[in-house]
Every structure is written in structure tokens, then in C-alpha cells.
Write a structure and sequence with these properties.
Elements lengths: L6 E2 L2 E2 L1 H19 L3 H9 L2 H7 L10 H11 L2
Antiparallel strand pairs: 1-2
Helix pairs in contact: 1-2, 1-4, 3-4
């Protein structure tokens, strides 16, 4: 995520997206009983993360648990 800027409706939401990613990774870590680094790796290599990066679809604004549910559907 080097030098990535997320913009939605003309506003920089990069911090919001980063906070959301961290919260989602925390949920994944807890649900899958894995360490933080493994949870980050799994999430960053998922289709759910790719969807989240497209801020126009609004997934970034959902609750972390909802996003983690989508991830868990992809990675049961």
C-alpha cells in the first residue's frame, strides 16, 4: 500500500480505509486464531481486499465484521 491515496466523492479517505483494514484484520485474526502477520497476508491476498480497494462500491464504509464475513465466505 505504498503511496496509495483513496478518494471518495472528492475527499481523501485514505486514513478511513487504513483504519478499516486494520479493524478487519483484527477480526480475521481472532476468528481464524492466527497471528497478525498471517491475517494481514491472507487479507491482502484476497478478493475481498481487492473489492475494498475499489472505494466506489462503498465496502470500505461497512462494519469490519461485515467485511470479515465477506472474507470468511471466500476463505472458510
Amino acid at each position: 500500500m505504498n503511496d496509495v491515496i483513496y478518494v471518495f466523492n472528492g475527499k481523501d479517505i485514505t486514513m478511513n480505509v487504513c483504519i478499516q483494514i486494520r479493524a478487519v484484520v483484527d477480526v480475521i485474526q481472532e476468528r481464524q486464531n492466527i497471528d497478525f502477520v498471517e491475517a494481514v497476508d491472507r487479507f491482502y491476498n484476497s478478493g475481498t481486499y481487492e473489492i475494498l480497494r475499489n472505494v466506489e462500491n462503498g465496502l470500505w464504509a461497512e462494519a469490519p465484521e461485515y467485511i470479515a464475513d465477506k472474507f470468511m465466505e471466500e476463505h472458510p
